Amino acid sequence: MTILLLFLLYSIVLSVALGRAGYRARPARSANAPGPALGRVLVVGATGGTGRELVARALDRGLEVTALVRDPARLGIEHPRLRVVRGDVLDPASLEDAVRDAGAVLCALGHRRYFGPSRILSAGTRNIVGAMERHGVRRLVCETSLGIGDSAGRMGLLYTFFLLPVVLPFYFWDKTRQEQVVAASGLDWAIVRPGALVDGPGRGRWRHGAAVGSLLWTVRIARADVAEFMLDQVTSDELLGTATGVCW
Ligand SMILES: NC(=O)c1ccc[n+]([C@@H]2O[C@H](COP(=O)([O-])OP(=O)(O)OC[C@H]3O[C@@H](n4cnc5c(N)ncnc54)[C@H](OP(=O)(O)O)[C@@H]3O)[C@@H](O)[C@H]2O)c1
Q1: Is 114 helix (H, G, I), strand (E, B) or coil?
Q2: Closest ligand 1 atom, residue 223 Cα
Q3: What is the pLDDT along the chain (248 residues), one digit of tens a residue?
Q4: Per the confidence metrics, is the pTM higher than 0.85?
Q5: Cα 241 to middle of ligand 1, angstroms
Q6: What are phi and psi of 219, to 5 degrees?
Q7: Predicted pLDDT of residue 30
Q8: Among 96, 139, 164, 221, which residue has the fewest nearby CB atoms (within 10 Å)?
Q9: Which spans in the chain are helix H?
Q10: How high is the pLDDT of residue 201?
Q11: Cβ density class 114-151: b for 16+ within 10 Å, e for less
């Protein structure tokens, strides 16, 4: 009984800490203003679940795409408008070529090293921001997650009282730092916080905003829909300077 109570206390303290440390909303800078004309987008994490959807859907939208990958063989997409650049977000020099001609950067970085302290998301994003600043690239759309900042608890009970405290505390702590890095940058940024991600076709519709998610149930969304939502933020200024939850 004591152990259970201590565990519940730890889970609650973790969620409060993730809530306080992550980005908390301020008013959006502008509403519904048209974004800049963008020729090329850089997708970071292009070989991942969301990243592949971003690449494919950006190409469908007629954009020029650069895919930053550690291993080109893992991408599995070829297209005349796709440029593949080998790089590692933890190696700043390897980002220069990819960032140089980008009009916007879409970051869908992730990893599976759950059970130990990690700074891949935050340090990697800091390097991306640095490269963008050096090359005058202004717009960053970054995928994080519901459950941090002012969305703490909104991944539902399963996450709040099991997955976050047992499996993902280090990972989510790094995600809060990643949000801090983005929000502290002087870029035109938008943080996108999806619910639990699923593969397969999107529905083409979703709910988004600061109050989406559930304190009880796990809310979900397809990576395909997250990719569409992120791409919308490349050309819309509506959600600049905000962290926005998105789920079905
Ligand atoms: N899974 C969920 O239910 C869920 C829910 C909410 C939010 N999210 C978040 O959404 C994001 C995307 O998730 P996902 O599952 O779609 O992606 P994912 O399949 O985990 O892909 C992650 C991508 O990041 C790349 N990457 C990792 N370390 C890198 C490095 N050092 N340099 C360059 N690239 C690197 C990976 O490249 P390699 O192929 O080379 O490894 C891969 O392309 C993640 O941050 C995830 O935590 C996930």
Answers
A1: coil
A2: 16
A3: 777 777 778 788 777 777 877 777 654 454 333 444 567 999 999 999 999 999 999 999 999 999 999 999 999 999 999 999 999 999 999 999 999 999 999 999 999 888 899 999 999 999 999 999 999 999 999 999 999 999 999 999 999 999 999 999 999 999 999 999 999 999 999 999 999 999 999 999 999 999 999 999 999 999 999 999 999 999 999 999 999 999 99
A4: yes
A5: 22
A6: -95, 150
A7: 43
A8: 96
A9: 2-21, 49-60, 96-100, 120-135, 157-158, 169-184, 223-235
A10: 95
A11: eeeeeebbbbbbbbbbebbeeeebbbbbbbbbbbbbbb
> Residue 179's closest CA among 226, 154, 142, 227?
142
Q: Is 245 in the pocket of ligand 1 (CB under 6 A)?
A: no
Can you tell me the distance from the alpha carbon of 173 to that of 21, in angstroms, rounded to the nearest whole number? 8
Decide: 109 in ligand 1 pocket, CB within 6 A. yes
- Could you give the domains of the chain? 2-247 (3.40.50.720)
Q: Name the residue with the closest Cα to ligand 1, atom 18.
A: 48
Which protein residue has the closest C-alpha to ligand 1 atom 32?
88
How many whole angstroms from 47 Cα to the centroid of ligand 1?
A: 8
Q: How far apart are CA 159 and CA 216, in angstroms?
A: 9
